[in-house]
Design a protein that fits this description.
Elements lengths: L3 H24 L6 H26 L2 E4 L10 E4 L1 H28 L4 H20 L3 H19 L5 H31 L4 H7 L7 H17 L9 H7 L2 H26 L6 H21 L4 H29 L7 H35 L15 H15 L5 H19 L3 H29 L12 H19 L2 H16 L3
Antiparallel strand pairs: 1-2
């Protein structure tokens, strides 16, 4: 007999989908009720997710069989320390973005409140579903749910946003097709779609051309979803075109859920057989370097933050790549401390980047609502009239650049420390170059983060205006407090949770 908490992963997904339909039905009679339905639903989901995280940290993994059908025949939800941690992040960010949307949607999408919150709740449903499922085809289905919602939300403003949404749709459809083809190859040789079952069936088949093709298709397909270089081309257009809360969710968590799906599949189904640690390392380092070069010269603030998102995808991918590379060299025995630390840093960076990037995107939405521009040159000294927004954004910018003791410092510190430990333990040019390139990019990124902060706080030239509505200010201030509290008061507990999650994905948990 399952306990109540063990039913919660399924309920988190089900109530979110029911809420989306409720918003659509209720919206016909009362549009103003839509944001409240979404906010209350996500609060309930977040409370459930916290209970789930506490349960798996205390009692171990939850296995839930939908309809009572045992795997591999039925769909199984599997929740461990890794995806319980990701689930809490998704819903925390989703809640504050929904609160912000209560007012911002009236400015950015007048008359579209019902459709926005219906799609937004479906988007949350897809994110949660991808995170908790233990079935690879079910993962594909939820990726399509969140992707279709995201395409519509990106193009919801009309005009040039439609073109950005269409570009995103084309690239996203290609990524989904690649992922589905990879799943098809795996099913053709194993007859199973359950991820755990596949992990047992695949090792004798690693030499098969079908399995090798599946590895390539899945990596490329999910690489598009997470906007890794050179598969990132949809993102710089999609983020500026989307409403600010959607930009925050796309950058803060959607592309990170793509990363979660990638490491869940690769590290579970192909444990270092194809030496993909080096592939992830190269792609991660290229992503952060190339995107940094583009970001510095952007004057559209949301486009600058979009390129910054690719930089941070590169940092996270590099952390995972370091872990996989170390384990490919030292595959026997216990997991090396450097590998565990590198993956923990990558997972902690999902949180720190999610909070920081959601903060600056929502803050830029507040400014756009006030002075109707995304041109950084026209925002000089906006802090005099929008102090809460500007000071909060500055906290987010400092966290993103890795300023101690904010939460963004700890995740980058863990990754750099892991690489330094790897240099001592395994040596080699690869680890030395990785350390140098990461350090260079961290310093280089600080230049444009500080430039933005300087424009907002010091320079002059912005039109006189007033602070954003309360719900919009509340979200950015809450995210700024999260950057401070996470870095000052909670770094050790957060690092412990991230380390526990890293042990799970690396096979030591």
């Amino acid at each position: 007999m399952l306990s109540l908490v063990e039913h919660l992963p399924a309920l988190i997904v089900v109530i979110s989908m029911l809420s989306a339909f409720s918003i659509l039905l209720v919206g016909w009679r009362n549009k103003n009720a839509c944001p409240f339905i979404s906010i209350v639903t996500i609060i309930i989901q977040l409370v459930m997710a916290i209970f789930v995280l506490n349960y798996v940290l205390t009692n171990g993994t939850i296995y839930y069989w939908l309809g009572g059908w045992s795997p591999p025949w039925g769909i199984e939800y599997v929740v461990d320390a890794l995806n319980a941690y990701i689930l809490v992040i998704i819903l925390f960010l989703g809640l504050l973005c929904a609160i912000h949307s209560k007012s911002s949607v009236e400015h950015e999408l007048p008359g579209k409140k019902v459709s926005f919150f219906t799609l937004y709740q479906l988007f949350i449903t897809g994110l949660c579903g991808v995170t908790v499922t233990g079935d690879i085809f079910n993962m594909y289905v939820f990726i399509e749910i969140l992707s279709l919602s995201a395409y519509a939300l990106v193009g919801s403003k009309g005009g040039t946003s439609l073109r950005a949404g269409f570009t995103y749709l084309v690239m996203g459809a290609i990524g989904a097709c690649f992922f589905l083809i990879g799943i098809g190859f795996l099913y053709s040789v194993t007859g199973s779609l359950n991820i755990h079952d596949l992990s047992l069936l695949l090792p004798p088949l690693y030499g098969s051309k079908a399995v090798q093709a599946a590895f390539i298709f899945i990596t490329v397909g999910l690489g598009i979803k997470m906007a890794i270089y050179p598969l990132h081309t949809w993102l710089p257009d999609a983020h500026p075109a989307a409403p600010s809360p959607i930009s925050a969710m796309l950058s803060g968590i959607m592309i990170m859920v793509g990363f979660y799906a990638l490491i869940r599949v690769l590290f579970t189904l192909f444990p270092f057989y194809y030496n993909y640690g080096l592939i992830l390392l190269i792609l991660g380092l290229l992503s952060m370097t190339v995107a940094n070069l583009f970001a510095y010269f952007q004057m559209d603030i949301k486009r600058l933050f979009a390129y910054s998102s690719i930089v941070n995808v590169g940092i996270i991918t590099t952390g995972a790549g370091v872990a996989a590379y170390i384990l490919s060299i030292e595959p026997a025995g216990a997991i090396p401390e450097a590998a565990s630390l590198a993956m923990a840093g990558a997972l902690l960076h999902i949180l720190s980047h999610g909070i920081g990037k959601a903060l600056v995107f929502l803050g830029s939405g507040n400014i756009h609502a006030a002075i109707h521009t995304r041109d950084l040159a026209k925002m000089g000294g906006i802090a005099r009239d929008m102090p809460y927004t500007s000071y909060s954004m500055s906290v987010g910018l400092l966290s993103l650049l890795g300023m101690p003791p904010l939460i963004g410092f700890w995740s980058k510190f863990l990754i750099l420390m892991a690489v330094a430990m790897a240099i001592q333990s395994i040596g080699g040019v690869v680890m030395i170059m990785t350390f140098i390139i990461i350090l260079f990019n961290v310093i280089y990124a600080a230049t444009y983060y500080l430039k933005v902060a300087k424009v907002l706080m010091v320079e002059r030239g912005a039109a006189r205006t007033h602070e954003a509505p309360f719900s919009m200010v509340f979200s950015v201030v809450a995210f700024a407090l999260a950057c401070l509290i996470g870095g000052l008061l909670l770094p050790i507990p957060l690092i412990r949770v991230a380390t526990r999650a890293s042990q799970i994905i690396l096979g030591g948990g």
